[in-house]
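Sharing in case it's useful to others searching the archive later.

Someone asked me privately for the predicted structure of 4-hydroxy-tetrahydrodipicolinate synthase, so I'm posting the question and my answer publicly. Question first, with the sequence:
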Amino acid sequence: MSSRAMNQIQESNLSLNCPLWTALVTPFHANGEIDFTSLEAIARDQADAGNGILLLGSTGEGLALSFEEQLSIVEYICRLSLAVPLMVAVGGHDLPSQLKWLQTCNRLPVQAYLLGSPLYAKPGPQGQYLWFRALLDQAKYPCMLYNVPSRSGIDLDVETLAKLQHHDNCWALKEASGELEQFLRYRQACPELALYSGEDAMMPYLASAGAQGLVSVCANAWPEATRAYVELSLTAQNQGLFPLWQNAIAPLFAVANPIPVKQLMFEQQVLSSPTLRPPLTHTELSDSQALVHQDQLISQWQAQRQGQACLN
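And my answer, the predicted structure tokens:
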């Protein structure tokens, strides 16, 4: 990591080494406009829980927003001066546009970037290297690269990542292939990188394999409980953890993310509307009973943990 980037992190008094980053949803009013009141409320909830905030990832429907809307969200959250680090997603398929986005965000008080693989093109190792190298060169802040073959269509090549890990701005990897073997290949080839799970349900398994933390969807609905789940995973306190959280997380991915989590947040009265930007729609989810049931179980689990802490 470059000394310039490290200095800026130190000056902001914010650490990137938080165990949980929440891939924040983007709230919309029923008419499709950004709901900034709800956006502020959910960002403050994450900050109160001590979770880092990732803006405009796929969970935040970043690709469904215009450049101006994306910028308005990042600037709005920056103005809140929250006491947790902010990461901004960089993703698409048009490299000049992504370089322009980085140039714009470089002027803002954020702490990191999430660099996604180019969509649809499915480049090979050399194409991936050129893509990520250009983004890393343009970035002013530390970068977390993102392996998500379910959306990009191809895994980030292990040898390519091994070369990129030596770039001054290459800080971490979000691994969301859902394959333990792939995570282990990255871990072996890239000892200089901090590895984060991009799969909520796999956190206990990947923690035992060297994951430093989680970039989470479910933390949108359960900020404090998910923080506890991650911390327990990282300290191998797994008794009863696997079935409870795997069952809770499953309904959040019953249809395309972030449809279920936004529906649950609407049921929790955290969001004013479950509205998404087309082609996503909350009408894909015909029944929210499973979500509500699991929400109740997680609330009970968190209350029990807090009660035990008070007794101790």
